[in-house]
Amino acid sequence: MSSLSALNNIHVKGQFGDYEGKDDKNLLSISESTNLLIVQIVQYKSSNLSSDNMQIDGLNLRDNPLLVSSNDSTRILWNGPRNWLLVSKKKDILNEIEQKFNDNEFAVTDISHSKAIIEIEGKVAKEILKKGCPFNFGELEKNQCLNSTYNGMSVTIDMLNDDPDKFRIFGLRSFGESLYHSIIDASLEFGYIAK
Amino acid sequence: MLHIKCPHCGMRSQNEFSYGGDATVKRPALNKEVTDQEWDNFVYNRVSPRGKHLELWQHLSGCRQWIKVERDTATHEIFNTYKTNEEIA
Lengths: 195, 89
Description:
The structure holds two protein chains of two kinds. By secondary structure, chain A is mainly beta. Chain A has two domains: about 15-35 and about 115-195, Gyrase A, domain 2; about 35-110, Alpha-Beta Plaits (2-Layer Sandwich). Chain A is built from three helices and 14 strands. Chain A has a seven-stranded mixed sheet, covered by helices on one side. A five-stranded antiparallel sheet of chain A has the order 6-7-8-3-9, covered by helices on one side. The longest helix of chain A has 12 residues, at about 175-185. Chain B is mainly beta. Chain B has one domain: 2-Layer Sandwich (Folate-binding fold), CATH 3.30.2270. The model of chain B has no long low-confidence stretch (mean pLDDT about 95). At the A-B interface, strand 11 of A face strand 2 of B.
């Protein structure tokens, strides 16, 4: 069975907006991230386990606001107190999680197919985010993440890199089309390459 | 627009929060005999103070936690925010 990505029929590749006369290398790029494993991990309030010692793919679950623990293939985003979002290229990690995380202590939910994921990269990436999200992006650093809204839609934003700025924006799959159009509308004035 | 300091996430826009009412209302103890008046007071009757007020807010688009906010209802100044399980002096 083949699965369609959330933006399969919406994301159109090419150059758009005010891109003429600008160097392709410095142009904002927009792409859809696909084939990622996304798992929500919530530790129950009744659980007394120290989550700091729990490891997935060599990464600790750390209960620090905005923090992202990461390696080349996996990122663990802090989503709230005792609440994490694991994003990984390795699909088989799910087995490891199910073995390590006791049903009585943690709720583990595979939400890989319920998210639309847009990646934006470029020097003006923060400007795009500022247009729709009330968070103070001046404070945000590499390997930090946040939950907020973009034009009223709930999003999770993960800062992957800072040279140039690179972000992954997770929205609900059902809001994917609206979110995508919000992002490209905000990007038109700078010009962008859809990859 | 208000900015509210979530005790979990830090300073955020009011857009991310949802108002949850008076934080000083206490439910009558379980299994205790309550009069209709006491139940009415718990469910319906609210004071509308001018000045400092302790409120419940939920960081709905952020960490999704309920928090307590000490706010002036006249000036909207926010004095303090607390986790729900935090004791307030």
